[in-house]
Amino acid sequence: MMQIIGKSAELQLEKDVSTRYLPVVIAAMIFLAALAIGGLFSLSNAISDWSATLTGNLTVEIAFDPTADLDKKVTDAVELLSKTPGVAAARAIEQEETLKLLEPFLGRNAALGDLPIPRLIEVIIDEDSAIDLAALNEKLGEAVAGARLDIHRPWLDKMVLLGRSVQILAAAIMLLIGAVTVIIVIFAVRTGLIMHAEVIQVLHLIGARDQYIAEQFQNYFARLSFLGALPGLIVAIIVMFIFNFLVGSLEASMLPPLSLGVEGIIALLLLPLMVALLTRFTVRRVVLGSLERMM
Amino acid sequence: MVRFENVGMRYGLGPEVLRDISFHLQPGSFHFLTGPTGAGKSSLLKLLALSHRPSRGLITLFNKEVSSLARDDLPAMRRKIGVVFQDFRLLDHLSALENVALPLKIAGAKNSQIYQHVAELLEWVGLGRQVDAKPPTLSGGEKQRVAIARAVINRPQLLIADEPTGSMDAEMGLRLMYLFQELNKIGTTVVVATHDLGLIKRFGNPVMFLKDGMLTTRKQDELPSQFSRDGG
Ligand SMILES: Nc1ncnc2c1ncn2[C@@H]1O[C@H](COP(=O)(O)OP(=O)(O)O)[C@@H](O)[C@H]1O
Ligand SMILES: [Mg+2]
């Protein structure tokens, strides 16, 4: 039983000074990884909100113009669209709704009308109809100045693209953290193998299998990683709470609060387990690989 | 049981410390290995213990040619061999009891079966009161007895001992030689390296004589009365 918890009876790895720094480094790694996960999942939730709202529909965008009566333009455009064959429905998106979509970027308290936000009209098209979108766009532009059929939704698409890029960045950071962790663990294990070469040889000579020796190393190092990961994760969670608290209390914040969602929280809580498993696997590979070169 | 054919051995890129060693040990035999210091006794035992590989020649143990063994076969074979190292090689942070129990533990025996047996053996070699002592607190002779107990705890088929009585008084040395003899009677093949010619004469077992890395078999009465100090 003690073996599983990580005590290494014969090798006494726990007496090694050289491996004591490992939990500290792992704690720092997990701290960074937890923040990256926080960003990753918050963004992914925001992105799916944006895209869900506008998926499957066309949007008509009426350019912001402080001198014109935008409300009238919207009404005209809706009327024209509703009469167009093939259009099932056309609905003006309330400005509050638009703002809500943009809240992650603009903050909760951005004043209506102050911002050069385009007015949006949601257009739902009959499923089996084939509308000439280019012609409709032209007709719309003639009837209502500044109106444009937004086939590709470039504006929101760019937001989604930006979100995705940041997501990829966060994922790359995670990979980097994983790689650095593996390298650190490899060095720690190599040192351990050299320091304990004599005991390992004795164990071999009295009939120990490589597995037996590898297990002592992998259990011990996995435990070190796990114990280092816990404080790293706890500090990261505290930092995220503080961040959200600050975001919530700041007026007109440009930053969205972090909202991880259930998957994000599960991913966070799995982090220590994952790093322990990664360590275990790495240690096993290194130890078995180097024992193989012994007689 | 054990067969060496034209075996040579060297450490790294150094000179050959064993040259053209050929011999055959019958199962259940008891041999002494002797020769002056530096002759290569310990080196030959390292080959027998599967601790080092020969640089040439064939070694056959338990009817298997050693160089053809897969790595996975080594542990099982080593468990049939008990080794008393010249420098004991005990694990300093384990008690005498745990040191002796280690081969059983490694072989997967249950704790409950191990310790009774181990304690009895330690009692027998006169260490009944030192079961919980760590090797650094033991005298040379006591460490040597722990090492011997560890080598025999598994009832090995082949027992190899390198100067096993060098660090203890004559009486205890004899007692342990009798232990080896008892084990030999129940079928264990025994090889004892020693430069104690008195011990060899007393027991009268066949002798392998090593000098300058070469092996000759000598009768008891052909042995020198003592080894020259420079080791030849
Ligand atoms: N680990 C080693 N590395 C290099 N040379 C060694 C090593 N061990 C022993 N030797 C050399 O091998 C020769 C035989 O040594 P050894 O087998 O210990 O002899 P013995 O046990 O008969 O005294 C000696 O010349 C010794 O210097
Ligand atoms: Mg020697």
TrEMBL record, chain A:
Name the UniProt record assigns to this protein: Cell division protein
Taxonomic path: Bacteria, Pseudomonadati, Pseudomonadota, Alphaproteobacteria, Sneathiellales
Transmembrane segments: 21-41, 168-189, 224-246, 258-278
Alphabetical GO biological process terms: cell division
Keyword set, alphabetical order: Cell cycle, Cell division, Membrane, Transmembrane, Transmembrane helix
Cellular component aspect of the GO annotation: cell division site; membrane
Signal peptide from the UniProt entry: none
Highest taxon of the lineage: Bacteria
Matches recorded under InterPro entries: FtsX (IPR004513)
Keyword Cell cycle assigned: yes
From TrEMBL, chain B:
Membrane-related topology note: Peripheral membrane protein
InterPro entries: AAA+_ATPase (IPR003593), ABC_transporter-like_ATP-bd (IPR003439), ABC_transporter-like_CS (IPR017871), ABC_transpr_LolD-like (IPR015854), Cell_div_FtsE (IPR005286), P-loop_NTPase (IPR027417)
PROSITE patterns for this protein: ABC_TRANSPORTER_1, ABC_TRANSPORTER_2
Domain of life: Bacteria
KW DNA-binding (keyword) present: no
Keywords: ATP-binding, Cell cycle, Cell division, Cell membrane, Membrane, Nucleotide-binding
Compartment(s) of residence: Cell inner membrane; Cell membrane
Family membership: Belongs to the ABC transporter superfamily.
Quaternary structure note: Homodimer. Forms a membrane-associated complex with FtsX.
Function, in words: Part of the ABC transporter FtsEX involved in cellular division. Important for assembly or stability of the septal ring.
Protein name (Swiss-Prot/TrEMBL): Cell division ATP-binding protein FtsE
